[in-house]
Amino acid sequence: METNVRHLPRLSLASAMRIYGLTARALRFYEERGLLSARRDRLNARYYDPEARQRLDWIARLRQGGVSLEDIRDILAAEDGDERRRELALGALARKQTELEDQLARIRTTRRALEGAADQRAAV
Q1: Would you tell me the crossing angle of helices 82-123 and 69-77 to the nearest 10 degrees?
Q2: Number of folded domains that form the chain
Q3: What range does the domain containing 48 cover?
Q4: pTM for the predicted model, two decimal places
Q5: pLDDT, tens digit, for every residue of 35-92?
Q6: Is residue 112 part of a domain?
């Protein structure tokens, strides 16, 4: 997600929105939920330091993958750094994939049942 902005000492709210594809409302929401902390400049404008940008990168990627906020909180809280976070993230994504595959199977079953009922009515 993050383009080459690691060299910047801080990133404005508008730049964070553009880079991570998140709305201002989403950024404030993540801050309210304790997933992210923004600093304030002398004009009280939000900005994100390198640590916050790293968290933003994780949040944006995981939300894009449909990972829940609860799982994201656990992933970000991992004490062993990026490798442990990666393991937890992959586990959360695998669970989400299984959930979606199960949902897709139920949709296919329901669709077949409805199509079969329509075929039976047409044959009568």
Answers
A1: 160
A2: 1
A3: 11-99
A4: 0.77
A5: 999 999 899 999 999 999 999 999 999 999 999 999 999 999 987 778 999 999 999 9
A6: no
